[in-house]
Amino acid sequence: MAGPSPSPHKPRRKAKQRAGNATGSLSSASSVETSVRTPSFPLAAFLWPARGSVSQWELLPLILMTAGLFRWAAGLWGYSGFEKPPMFGDYEAQRHWMEITTQLPISQWYFHDLQWWGLDYPPLTAYHSWLCGKVGSLIDPSWFALFSSRGIHDPTLKIFMRATVVVSEYLIYVPAVVVFVRRFSKLNGVASWPASVALVAILMQPATILIDHVHFQYNTVMLGFVVASMSSMLAGRNLWSAVFFVAALGFKQMALYYALSVFAYLLGSCVFPRINIPRLVSIAAITVASFVILLLPLVVGALYDARRGIDSRPDLDGPRPPLPLFQGLAEYLDTEAFYYPVVEQLVQMVHRVFPFARGLFEDKVANFWCALNVVVKIKNYPPKLLQRGALIATLASILPPNLVLFLRPRKTLLPLAFATTAWGFFLFSYQVHEKSVLLPLMPMTLLLAGNQGLSKNTRAWVGFANILGCWTMFPLLQRVDLVVPYTVLTLLWAYLLGLPPTSISAYTQDGSRSLSQWATLFVHGAFYLAMALWHVLAMSLAPPPDKPDLWVVANVGVGAAGFSLCYLWCLWRLMLEGETLPASWVGRAKTKTQ
Amino acid sequence: MGDIYPSLLQCAIVAAAFKVLLFPAYRSTDFEVHRNWLAITHSLPLWEWYYEKTSEWTLDYPPFFAYFEWVLSHVARLADPAMLKVYNLEYDSWQTIYFQRLTVIIMELLLVYALQMFVDSAQGASKRAAQAAAISILLSPGLLIIDHIHFQYNGCMYGILIASLVLARQKSSLLLSGLVFAALLCMKHIYLYLAPAYFVFLLRAYCLSPKSIFRIQFLNCLKLGGGIAAILGTAFGPFALKGQIPQIMSRLFPFSRGLCHAYWAPNVWAMYSFVDRVLILVAPRIGLPVKEGALQSVTRGLVGDTAFAVLPDITPRMCFALTLVFQAIPLLKLFFQPTWDNFIGTVTLCGFASFLFGWHVHEKAVLLVIIPFSLIALKDRRHLSAFRPLAVAGHVSLFPLLFTPAEFPIKTVYTVLWLILFLMVFDRLAPASSRARFFLFDRFSTLYITVSIPLIVYCSLMHGVVFGKSYEFLPLMFTSSYSAIGVVGSWVGFMVVYFTS
Predict the structure, then answer these.
(1) ipTM field
(2) Which residue among A37, A74, A496 places its CB closest to the CB of B21?
(3) Cα distance from A159 to chain B (closest Cα, Å)?
(4) Percent with pLDDT over 70 in chain B
(5) Most buried among A127, B55, B283, B385, using CB within 10 Å?
């Protein structure tokens, strides 16, 4: 829409001016939301009085406080593994990491009693746990006492843990999203009022609140670094974007879902419109430097501990065990050399972070493989074949979007490309968890801040993906008695954005309804009906005894189909906006989407 | 003209979502009180309701509320029959919590309806202001803290009160207004504090001719009197037949309680106690006698029966007299100018007088002032500047109701959000007054609001760090003395506004 985008790299001041121009020239097209006389969905109604005269700085604190209140209130509910011995859940895992990082020398972190929630996230999570654990120990040291604190469910500890999630999110994710929304909406010529509406919608996204603040995890820290990375790309600060992305990877390996898009964009911006070798070199250097800084505490710690004579595995006697991975390496290395503890430490970290030995999928998750498993028992195939199949399918699904991004490294395409790539990973890659759906949902929801972001079409698709995403996590939430927060937060978000099941206004238009709108209504309607029906059935009927997983499997099947549609929609939009489609198609598509 | 957004219903839906999320939050003994009443009304015959005392939380609301609990109990049976056993003390299964909390949210629809009536009754340019005031009441942190966390049914009862106040706006529905208020009195007798305003207003506007106060409209008197008698008869009749009225009265008006409630309500008696505490330190130097017996109660702080060490003791009779005197002043003006605005002003001032001078006033009663005041706070800027300190003080004074760490962020952030949002919105919506603003009052309210920040920080964080668990009464005393200044300031300011407009 925005016409051919200028070259992706320009001095910052000019970029600002460009955004200003865009606002002027596009105001007629994109300020539909501000010029209409009645708000078209409830969230717009809530911000209705703030149109025009109210400044961002009056509105922003109110938005952040409201979002915070909902998060904290949701956190009053139980967390995963609450009073569920013997292993408890994610909450215990995070608490346990605070325990081991504060109580053990750094060289033992990745080795300590791996059977009890051994640390399996990258180092930044470990440092974050250390910081939280240190602060928490000031309040009550017994929360993080070695061994004796396992499975503790002190109510004050719960408040502290909830507070760490909220504080981490408000330090990283929330500022990143606020800045991103400002930059992205300006880039697309969206006025500040619709951008505020989009900001509320993004912050109230039910899936993130449910997983982080209710079920318990720190996904928003990783997601926040990714948003910060995208936001830096928008600002043209490619070096910062590399730094932030390394931080995201260093916090949670799941950020790899986006890695190819980051790579494609950064590479693309070094190649088009003309090849820029110094930029490529500096990005590469900064990336390497960031990784070095990320690993430095671990490396220095390993060396220091080795010198002090602290073994990374005090529980083992006798000769050093072989490396868990890259065993061939051992032939070239001297196990007594001074650098060996470092190699051992890093290999162990990689081994913990990337569990290659596990199966194609663990639990029931709404991706392609798990859905396929219903039809063909693919678990019976040799794992090597499955791994190769997953690799090929993933590559096939993520190459097209990243090719578009590489050839057209435009800032406006970033959320679409990130979303498509993450959907590809979620659907086809190896070892997917149902919570991973947060990764494609995040950039897709950011579309709300873009051009025509609050239009019915975009709202319908973003809403569909989010509600379907929450719905596929229902079995996970139900297991820990979180049905009420699930219902409330999902319905609230659907209500705010005027989406089914509370309203079908996103699918209707005054006047004539186009073919594509009918098609969307029909397809989405079928999915919403299926979800509602599933809830009714799962609530009222027990599954037949010979198929105890029937409801979960049905959930997976519907979810995988819906997510595939989301993937296709994102890919379609990306190609459309990236102007990579033949002109004849585009003409037809334009009439369709109008 | 188009509708004003957001609508009340939209706000109610989002607020309800938030309130459902608060289900697992802290709940006070009032939760058990109401469960016990469900059990009493469900499992005992009518005649034993006001005699039953298995639980210490005996039924001490008037009969309509008991009937209301009786109706609820029939639904409660479907949720969890175990909560309806009188001996099942402190019973709080998840079903019980869901049921009781949900009834509060559902009953609050009455408030939404009444507020919509209020908005609809406003005309022209003031409609936008009415909508803002209505939303501010609907989202009031007071109702959130008291009803949805602490646990009570104020929302629906204030809904009835507002409905009655709005009905008084039309000449044709004056009778209904009086009857609705009578019914409200039979639900919760705290509204007796507002009754003088109703009495004077209905007497003047309904029972006496608008032309002359010496011409009595007998038909109207008959209708009103008969209606009220019928309502009182329905409420108390069955009990009167068995001669249980004295027992009910002893339950409804327990005069054996002390001057100040456990947490001090921010009224003149809180200031009085504060001065007394200060005098204990000063008195020996200036030669005033200190009563030894009262000193014990100083350190306890959280006492029911406050004894004063230096200042003279206060009797219920003195409280009663002071309340009446300060209610009578605005009533006089209402009698001679029975307009709706004066009526709401008088209701507010009656609330003020009883809150400030009443015996054993609970800090929750501050809503009795805030809610009627909200209806006219946006009349002009002078009204608003009197309302502002009350909005801050009234809500801050409710903070001690919730003392658990998990609810701390909710009560503070929600209240701060509400204050920023509505004081900002009110500021834009309140029209300028035709009269000059009075000297320095705006400065007072700005200074006052600023002081609240260090106060909240001290009471909620610093005190615990510095003193730990000792001197627990200090933050309570600071909070209530601070709030008392705001409430008294607001009262004085509004008195001036009321008599000069």
Answers:
(1) 0.93
(2) A74
(3) 6
(4) 93
(5) B385
